[in-house]
């Protein structure tokens, strides 16, 4: 049976299977407990938030997103496009991310990107549609798939926190390259999204 979206039951099932299959992930689960689902509401606002998270800390992106949300109330393509560059800069947007957010808002407003329809598409199709919009690369598309659409088998290769955590959890001498990291994830199919959450859980616990 193909699992389109993780729920509480399939999440517990995936955690148990990974822990039974991989002693290192099992140790993370035993020591830290189950990681949060970290799910997000699908839609435009979440995609803007993920764009803000590109190349910056989660805390910095959250602060910027919160300032934006406070200034517009409900974040929609129309409310974002109604803001001028000065207002977006005041919220913390870089020049590049102002452009990305405007391009995304225009694509959603004009129908070039139908975010509601993505829920019915397979992972590769979702990536193609999202990555057709300037400013959305593979990492952004994968995080949207993993957190907003709840897909069970997404592996965000470009995520630095995952790479750092993988080195420690798997006791590697050096950080894995992109190819090595991709290969590492193969052992965790069809639950790579849950493996990613376990690694994020480890990474965030090490920061505390």
Fold and architecture overview:
The chain is mostly helical and 208 residues long. The chain is 63% helix and 0% strand. It has 12 helices and no strands. The longest helix has 16 residues, at 95-110. The model has no long low-confidence stretch (mean pLDDT 96).
- Helix-strand pattern: HHHHHHHHHHHH
Q: Provide the structure class.
A: mainly alpha
Q: Kindly, what is the distance between the CA atoms of the first and last residues, rounded to a whole number of angstroms?
A: 39 Å
Uncertain stretches of 5 or more adjacent residues: none
Q: Approximately how much helix is present in the residues?
A: 55-70%
Spatial extent as radius of gyration: 18 Å
- Name the beta content range: under 5%
Count of strand segments: 0
Question: What is the element layout, followed by pairings?
Answer:
Blueprint: H1 8-21, H2 23-32, H3 44-52, H4 58-72, H5 77-81, H6 85-91, H7 95-110, H8 123-131, H9 138-148, H10 160-169, H11 178-186, H12 192-207
Helix pairs in contact: 1-2, 2-12, 3-4, 3-7, 3-9, 8-9, 10-12
């Amino acid at each position: 049976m193909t699992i389109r979206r993780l729920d509480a039951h399939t999440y517990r099932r995936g955690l148990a299977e990974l822990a039974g299959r991989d002693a290192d992930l099992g140790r993370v689960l035993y020591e830290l407990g189950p990681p949060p689902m970290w799910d997000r509401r699908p839609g435009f606002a979440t995609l803007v938030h993920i764009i803000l998270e590109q190349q910056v800390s989660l805390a910095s992106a959250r602060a910027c997103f919160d300032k934006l949300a406070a200034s517009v109330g409900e974040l929609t393509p129309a409310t974002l496009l109604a803001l001028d560059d000065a207002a977006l800069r005041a919220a913390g947007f870089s020049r590049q991310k102002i452009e990305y957010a405007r391009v995304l808002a225009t694509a959603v407003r004009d129908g070039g990107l139908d975010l509601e329809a993505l829920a019915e598409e397979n992972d590769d199709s979702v990536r193609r549609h999202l990555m057709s919009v300037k400013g959305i690369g593979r990492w952004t598309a994968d995080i949207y798939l993993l957190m907003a659409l709840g897909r069970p088998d997404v592996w965000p290769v470009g995520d630095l926190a995952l790479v750092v955590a993988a080195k420690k959890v798997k006791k590697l001498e050096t950080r894995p390259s992109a190819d090595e990291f991709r290969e590492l994830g193969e052992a965790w199919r069809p639950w790579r999204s849950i493996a990613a959450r376990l690694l994020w859980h480890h990474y965030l616990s090490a920061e505390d």
